[in-house]
Amino acid sequence: MIKHVFHCLLIGLALTACKNDKAVSPEESAVSTDPAPAAEPTDAITTSGKIRYTWVDQLNVRDLPGTKGKVVARVTSKEPLTLTGETSPSAETIVLRGVAYNEPWYRITTADGKNGWVFGGAVKEKGAMKGNAVISNEEFDFPVFGHFKLENWDLLSMDDSSEGDAEIKSRNFRAEDGRMLKIEEFEAGEHGYSVTHSLSDKQGNLLKERNFSFSTEPNTIIEEVADYTDIPAKRYIRSQELDKHFMQLNERPLMVKGEWRSERID
Asked: Taking the complete model, does pTM exceed 0.85, yes or no?
């Protein structure tokens, strides 16, 4: 399976890094997490006068396009934002609720007349399908795999192990109906990471398995869900190439933004 190939590859990379005799200074190995500098605006009159709404809670409106801009207002999903027609000259990659968006900043006017800039990934047209619920360790809703609130599940066991730079953390849960859920997090330092969710029935038969992974060269995230409850069983896959290493992003991606493709599992 993909997750096993990915794990083996990352373990090999991690062990190779550990065995390298060349000392690497903190300055050489550190990855900058500073937000991108504010960009100068450019005109985009085709967007002027159009209305957008945010899909996140308390979206920051800034005086300049970029995360270094001063916050001049915060808006909710119910407040209309009018585009002035100005956008930043380039797009920026920002992770929102576990999803990486590469979009420009838009200059807007709030409902109460304040002017400022908002990140394009955080706004949408009214009624558009964009955004997702918050992803946490206790609750998550992944397409195809399902919605889970682990406060309603019993935690059976936790296990941590390591080999070189590679670390594996696993948790096992059981629901009232007997279903079992295993969550395995795999870390290989700067070489990448993966998270696997495996859902089984009370007899131990695998129902669904979701694997999300980040690998480098190029920086790519892959999301794969095998659904054995389908007849015939199907595998759903989507991927997204990023312009930055995950250590350079504001937070880690946990879900892919993109279209699914499916294939039959024989």
From this structure: no
Out of 22-31, 68-77, 102-111, 198-207, pick the least confident. 22-31
Does residue 199 contact residue 146 with C-beta atoms inside 8 Å? yes
Average pLDDT rounded to a whole number, residues 34-57: 63
Query: Under a CB-based contact definition with an 8 Å cutoff, are residues 87 and 227 in contact?
Result: no
Percent helix, strand and coil across the chain, each to the nearest 5 = 15, 45, 40
Q: Is residue 169 scored above 80 in pLDDT? A: yes
The CA distance from 70 to 87, in Å, is 17
Query: Pairing mode, if any, of strands 42-43 and 81-87?
Result: antiparallel
Kindly compute the dihedral angle of the four CA atoms of residues 46, 49, 50, 52, in this order, to the nearest 10 degrees. Answer: 130
Task: Select the CATH number that applies to the domain covering 44-124 from these four: 3.60.20.10, 3.30.450.20, 2.30.30.40, 3.50.50.60.
Answer: 2.30.30.40
